[in-house]
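Proteins fold reproducibly. Take a sample protein:
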Amino acid sequence: MSAPVFHLALPVDDLEAARAFYCGLLGCPAGREAPGRWLDLDFFGHQLSLHLHPEAAGESRASAVDGDAVPVRHFGVVLPWPEWEALHGRLAAAGQPFRIAPRVRFAGKAGEQGTFFVLDPAGNALEFKSFADMGQLFARD
């Protein structure tokens, strides 16, 4: 049996800017949509629905995690290491600002991971992670 597909709905303040970011920059294929209201995307095999709701869009507060101010409200995906490196290289080459630059978090500890954060045009925080050892995904100290 295949793994379940996760569904997440987010507010955005500009659907066309969101489309350019998610479809153009991240390479997410567009799915169904109601023009001017919402857009479904294939976000790395999961369903992401972007709803036009300017009043609800915006960056969230941060919390300290391993020396970084991590946005409390965020989502993302765990990629194989080569795909993670390729994505952060592509984003850097495109001039996309990083909310938290690519780095290794929890180095030498349980859960060691590569991570970086970006904000979409509406201020939604996305984290992209990778583990050299996927067995560390749910590791505890």
Summary: The mean pLDDT is 93. The helical segments are 15-25, 81-93.
